[in-house]
Design goal:
A three-stranded antiparallel beta sheet has the order 2-3-5. It is elongated. The protein has a domain of 108 residues: Alpha-Beta Plaits, CATH 3.30.70.3270. The N and C termini lie far apart (71 Å). The longest helix has 18 residues. It is of the alpha+beta class. The protein binds iron/sulfur cluster (SF4) (2 copies). The site of one iron/sulfur cluster (SF4) has 13 residues, from helix 3.
Length: 169
């Protein structure tokens, strides 16, 4: 009998102890937790400071993707309608998020650092079609003060597709 009473008192003590401790639950979606630095969420297609898109439509990301989740269709840039530096840009860029395993191989394969896995994690869909993220959904807006693509530029101004990269050493 005494054993049972002690057990009840222990239980009550545990409840009371937790009543005065700060709650461990968070009020999602109003409140969001900060992420670990290496968290890999939904991708973004990046731009340069001048508004041009970093993606040059080379499809190396699609070739590197083990889940066959990326579809890229390239088209020619002109100086009247320029989307990215160099000859080509991605006219179509799609990622099927139902296939993606967030491995980051696409990011590693990209020669211009155009595709980056960011911290977007709210990925839920009502049908398969809406799991396909298009270029319009992935491309970040131009930086403040920069124009949106396509941009009209002086002839020969952006003939190099891949910029000089810093030595990562
Ligand atoms: S993160 Fe991995 S699986 Fe997802 S699109 Fe990139 S390469 Fe493919
Ligand atoms: S995201 Fe990078 S690797 Fe993929 S098509 Fe664009 S430039 Fe090429």
């Amino acid at each position: 009998m005494i054993k049972e009473v002690v057990a009840v008192l222990e239980g009550m003590f545990t409840v009371l102890k937790h009543l005065v401790q700060p709650p461990v639950t968070i009020q999602y979606p109003e409140e969001k937790r900060p992420f670990a630095q290496r968290f890999k969420g939904r991708h973004e297609l990046k731009r340069y400071d001048n508004g041009l898109e970093k993606c040059i439509g080379c499809a190396l990301c699609a070739a590197a993707c083990p889940a066959d989740a990326i579809w890229v269709e390239a088209a020619e840039n002109t100086d009247e309608e320029r989307y990215s530096p160099g000859e080509r840009y991605a006219r179509t860029y799609e990622i099927n998020m139902l296939r993606c395993i967030f491995c980051g191989y696409c990011e590693d394969a990209c020669p211009t650092e155009a595709i980056v896995l960011e911290d977007h994690y709210e990925l839920s869909y009502y049908d398969r079609r809406s799991a396909i993220f298009t270029k319009e959904m992935l491309l970040v807006p131009p930086p403040p003060g920069a124009p949106d693509t396509p941009i009209r530029v002086k002839p020969g101004m952006f003939d190099r597709a891949i910029p000089e990269m810093e030595d990562p050493k």
